[in-house]
Structure of Ferredoxin--NAD(P)(+) reductase (Naphthalene dioxygenase ferredoxin-specific):
Amino acid sequence: MVKIKFNPYNREIEVLQGENLLEAVRKAGIFMDTPCNGSGTCGKCKVKVINGDIISTGSKNITEEEKKNGYILACQSTVNSDAVVEIPETDSSSMHGMKIEDFSGSREKNIFQRSRDQILKSGMKFNNNIKKEYLELDPPTLNDNISDFERLRRHIKKQLNYDDVFCGLTILKKMPQLLREADFKITITHIPDEKGKTVIINMEKGDRTDQLYGVAVDIGTTSVAACLVDLHNGELIAKASSGNAQMKYGADVINRIMYSTRGNGLEKLNHAIIQETINPLLNRIYADSKIESDEVVSFVAAGNTTMSHLFLGVYANFIRQEPYIPAFVKIPLIKASELDIKVNPETPVYLVPSVASYVGGDISAGVLSSGMWHSDKNILFIDLGTNGEIVFGNSEYLMACACSAGPAFEGGEISCGMRASSGAVEKVKIDSSYNPTFSVIGQEKPLGICGSGIIDLICEMMFAGIIDRKGKIIKDLNTDRVRFDEHGIGQYVLAFKEQYDLDRDVVITEVDVDNFIRAKAAIYSGITTLLNNLSMDFTAIDKIYIAGGIGNSLDIANSVKIGMLPDIDQNKIQYIGNSSLMGCYLTLMSEDAKHKLEEIANSITYVELSVESEYMNEFVSACFLPHTDIDKFPTVKKCLDSSV
Amino acid sequence: MVKIKFNPYNREIEVLQGENLLEAVRKAGIFMDTPCNGSGTCGKCKVKVINGDIISTGSKNITEEEKKNGYILACQSTVNSDAVVEIPETDSSSMHGMKIEDFSGSREKNIFQRSRDQILKSGMKFNNNIKKEYLELDPPTLNDNISDFERLRRHIKKQLNYDDVFCGLTILKKMPQLLREADFKITITHIPDEKGKTVIINMEKGDRTDQLYGVAVDIGTTSVAACLVDLHNGELIAKASSGNAQMKYGADVINRIMYSTRGNGLEKLNHAIIQETINPLLNRIYADSKIESDEVVSFVAAGNTTMSHLFLGVYANFIRQEPYIPAFVKIPLIKASELDIKVNPETPVYLVPSVASYVGGDISAGVLSSGMWHSDKNILFIDLGTNGEIVFGNSEYLMACACSAGPAFEGGEISCGMRASSGAVEKVKIDSSYNPTFSVIGQEKPLGICGSGIIDLICEMMFAGIIDRKGKIIKDLNTDRVRFDEHGIGQYVLAFKEQYDLDRDVVITEVDVDNFIRAKAAIYSGITTLLNNLSMDFTAIDKIYIAGGIGNSLDIANSVKIGMLPDIDQNKIQYIGNSSLMGCYLTLMSEDAKHKLEEIANSITYVELSVESEYMNEFVSACFLPHTDIDKFPTVKKCLDSSV
């Protein structure tokens, strides 16, 4: 065994000689964002050896200078002796870091209000099916000595008129003491069905009828967001988000599925999403709002089909293999205790139904909250998360497809990419002398760049003449912000480390630009192919809703300029935030919405892009800024012409 | 810390100086039967100090000679240094020891046959509600790419005509791989309801429709018995029994309940019954019968009300406190996985409903299997287990009471008492020179005496003139088998240790006889009081069924002679074995029987003896051999007269 100490965490662990260094980092409980999951290609697990014998194969992700300074890729290294290793303070902590959101701000509020209005306008009601009742039971005597549960049942039958009453084991376990401590004055939380039966899911002392809480969770591949809701009035009590702790096992669903098939990989992924992501988020929310987990009696979650499988711990590998079959799209209700989610153990877990292997519950929920299902206008819904999903339609029909956009929109596979959280550059301008100005989420110090920032950056670089329309960096520009490494790969420095006291410069490389171009091309060609499939073109679009983790500051004009979105009237394009979380929220609040959601998931027609012959051509044509055929982007053409 | 080594187990543990020695024995994982649970009264935790400093308070249960030889009571001792302690090889291992029963023998078979006949004669059917179906699904293709679960649902809907299909999480988890490994040819096990729904509880590869198994368990306070049943034909595949591992926490329900209220006592008791008793029994059965736990898809258990609470881990203390209220008498179905029982995790656990705090599910099940519920004759049902419960009635009415008989019938609170398992003396004769002959269950060497043996022994001692009618040992008899300790307490030696190479003599003391007389008096006075309550006497009894753990060799005549059973025509009295287990077996096999069982539990009228003023008088009068009023036992009187 050898001892490895990790700075600045001051954490020491013992591992076998010969252990992979990235595995050692994970065993030490230190989070590193490793999109390629140890294959040595993403370059994100860069660490600095302070002392000790660590054997490392070289990597094109390590420059000569870095090599001299002791930098190696942890995933490409094995430990040969006791050692001290420094882990750079990059975005990784903030990548996973938790953020309690203040939604007193108008933007978040407006988005919620808009979703609520969609439901109410369509004639649905906020009718969740969870009820609370305050009961005063007759205490037992020698003459009235029926069991506690029979006493409760008798009272409920008489007072509330239910034929039969059920309860789970956890209720039975706490009932005898609780009844007596409460002097037989209790509040039950129960879920009645239409047939005169009801199921008790919680029991509290005294009158607690005014407290009724639920939790909605959006399980994104990169980011997870949760909100605590007062089920009486629909008020949001707290909202929090963090990185998905599964990121350490791969950046996208394909890498995660691959990891899940190895050893106890599936268990680890399930543990990562529930124990390392959702429960910590909930604990933060509870601490903040002074609410106990036992009081939370409703839970709705949505994720893409793979996330849904991993959330339940269900084998997901056949999603990835032709003919791409999920184990389920819709599951029967299960109890929170079965998944060990930190809410009341009897809470029914509702997982939003998926449509197909690559159009998940997050899209069903997004369509619900967008309101497109009761619109007579043609609406294009685009979810820009770790993948890109597109739905087109109206109250008559809904068509969907999934684009292999990869994780670039949430900062994945971008050297300084990060999700839209504290420390992320979200808006960028570049002046004529190639110098940038930018704004950072939550603080001064730029730790990395999120999706909206990358769009701005690429767009500005193009218009400033730093990159050409292929995304290649122009040589011999008169600026120290542009440089080329020994392999000839160019990069643009957005922020010098000296200026902000960082461990590294915040840069964008030609490789990053190329990755991002392919991501945006996947979206654009997806839209084109889906419309062609319906024999339509962009003129048919009455409205575009953009949803997802790309960031609140998404610049619509720039998104068009780089050719991600079609060049239509930009007043028709609107960012609607985390529509999946909104859909979960609506489902929490309304049984009507839940039924509608199931209808939506059932009715969406899935178009498999990989079998559409034209898709590949469309994609290749779109791998340009904004497009190989500039005439498809008349307003951008005009701008480019004028900027030359 | 000090080290304690236990012989002959060769087990060593470290404990804090000052630790109680009985606690140290438990921590070392060694089972000792301690009915009084450490209060120093039962004298069962006798151990021998080989070396080391162990501080012990004296005890009347340790003779001067034993003291000289280093014997102490573990519960009354604390450890002061490293030590070596010998634990006598008494009944304790066999008390808990597991026994796989061979029921090819006629007795066991007859008892089963009788119970089955009761059900069938009453017009019920063997119609258990668990079905198996072999299905050949169409494998998925790119054109038929619905999810695995939808595919299954579609097939079941079409082929079996169920409107809706549900399944639990464990099924969902194994489905994707299982379907493909099985080439989509599978067998499902499911439970349909009447409304066109069905719930899948197991899934296997290929055609397994011929394999359908269930388990029935009788959870006695002292003994636990389990049997594995072929649900297709009702055949018993294996049966096993063992001591209830909860015994280390107290011999009777009151001591167990008291233990359950301390610290994590409830958890420990729940662990003892499920993890240390039921699951090991099932593992033995599975190993013996080459059946996997996953194939067992039905589970029925019965126990007294306290055992039922502890089995579920439900707080039981209010059973013990006036007004004696159980938390429940009937529970909704729960899943085996919720209790961690070693059967298929989706298996519904059916716990037989209780009647009241002191008439449990074991009695409901016993009444079912006795058939008294459809008899027009008056039947007296007596369960002689750790407690004694009595039910009287017929198809018109059923009255029940519980007698505080204590654990004596199963060997509890008797110095050499043990349950009716291997090594127990089950039958005894004593000749005119005070020498005994006896038979031992399963082997030659007598380790202790079980209930039926104690009845014989006391009866024979009375007729041989060793004890008087108060149970006191006659002095100055011409035999070395009778002796008195320094406190003047007499004892009779049934087996000298030298003769059988034992660690101690097998004896019965005056204290034991006294304990047993109180137990048998509780039964007799219970019968009298119950009949008086109905303004009836013994002439109203058409039949007596004796059930319970007292032992297969129960001698009816001797039971009457000592005054446990009324002096009626002995042809009317029949031993029917473990009627609780039989009732569970019938419930496994028949939904009709299950409905009848619930009817029985609902319809039994419970008579609380402690509030019947005459009960105490009846009890005191019965604390004689056979009774203070010998005229109540005319045939015994005749025998006694002739033996004088």
